[in-house]
Amino acid sequence: MLGPPGAGKGTQSDLLAQRLNVPHLSTGDLLREAIARRTPLGRLAQPYMDRGELVPDEVVIGLIKEWLAREGHQTGAILDGFPRTLAQAHGLQETLAELGRQVGQVLYLRVPTEELLERISGRYVCPQCAATYHRRGTRPRTEGQCDVCGAELVQRPDDRVEVARRRLDVYFAQTAPLIDYYRGQGILAEINGAQSVDRVLTDELATLPAGYRHN
Ligand code: AMP
């Protein structure tokens, strides 16, 4: 799942993972979990995330390798927020090749830049289960409380507007080149992300090769 911060990658990855019955892997969620648990990885990643910058490639590639080697993760997955640089894309390709696998399809969620900051700054997340809500979109049933697990919702520190601006710059400089990279490989599908959640999901499902569709 490729796209700028605020494009809806997390929401769409969750829905798609449920439909296709495969795991959803978000490197951002893994890193936030490591920070919450104060692991060495979390301590390493936090300063980068606080600044809205990317965690070094070798760290994230290591994380993905370890995840792919785990039980139950060989059947395919929705990768959300990874790869984010060309070096990561190459690392992923090598790792998958060793496992006899490959990237099947890249969904690029396109959203007008001027909408992104508004989407990011209105977002609230559950620190426990990573469910996402929006001031002007999907609101929780009880104000400030997660529908899924009841935890108190928070704003991600890197969703504050100053950091969000930096994340957008980083996206355009380092991640956007992946659009052409995967287009060149003939596996990129461009999805209009400026539609309702359901509509985006329908468009995504329609672009997947027949073998991927379940349910
Ligand atoms: P996300 O939840 O995908 O918006 O990611 C939040 C933050 O985690 C990013 O701004 C980066 O600091 C870090 N991060 C997540 N995925 C990656 C990645 N693939 N490469 C480097 N940093 C990442």
Description:
The protein is mainly alpha-helical. It has a domain at 9-108 and 162-202: P-loop containing nucleotide triphosphate hydrolases (Rossmann fold, 3-Layer(aba) Sandwich). It contains nine helices and six strands; from the N terminus they run αβαααβαβαββααβα. The chain has helices at residues 9-20, 27-36, 40-51, 57-69, 86-98, 113-121, 161-175, 177-184, 197-207; strands at 24-26, 78-80, 106-110, 123-125, 132-134, 188-192. The strands form three sheets. A two-stranded parallel sheet has the order 1-2. A hairpin with a 6-residue loop joins β4 and β5 (132-134). α1 (9-20) packs across α9 and α2 crosses α3 (40-51). The longest helix is centred in the last third of the chain and has 15 residues, at 161-175. It is globular and about 45 Å long. The model has no long low-confidence stretch (mean pLDDT 93). Adenosine monophosphate binds next to α2 and α3.
Bound molecules: adenosine monophosphate
Shape: globular
Averaged pLDDT? 93
Binned, the helix content reads: 40-55%
Radius of gyration computed on alpha carbons: 17 Å
| Beta strand % | 5-15%
Strand order of the largest sheet: 1-2
Q: Gap between N and C termini, in Å? A: 20 Å
Give a brief rundown of this model.
With 215 residues, this protein is mainly alpha-helical. 48% of the residues lie in helices and 10% in strands.
